[in-house]
Design goal:
By secondary structure, the chain is mainly α. The chain has five helices and no strands. It has one domain: lambda repressor-like DNA-binding domains (434 Repressor (Amino-terminal Domain)).
Amino acid sequence: MPWVPYRRPDDPRVAALGRAVKQLRGKRSMVMLAGEIEIRPAFLEALEVGEVPVTFALLCRVADALGVRPHKLVERAEEIAS
């Protein structure tokens, strides 16, 4: 089933979480990180620009692939949002 874009959430913290993921990804390719998380690169790209909501399970998988604890990813997002 193809990924379908989601209407951008109004909550700025969703976009901040995406920016936090992008920052922590650094120079690592989106394709490589998406493969580690077991999602499509297009979905990761949408996540990074705040177009998709993130479940707790996905948040944990992303954090694991980035080598951080989930709460650290959330803290980074909160810093970006403020």
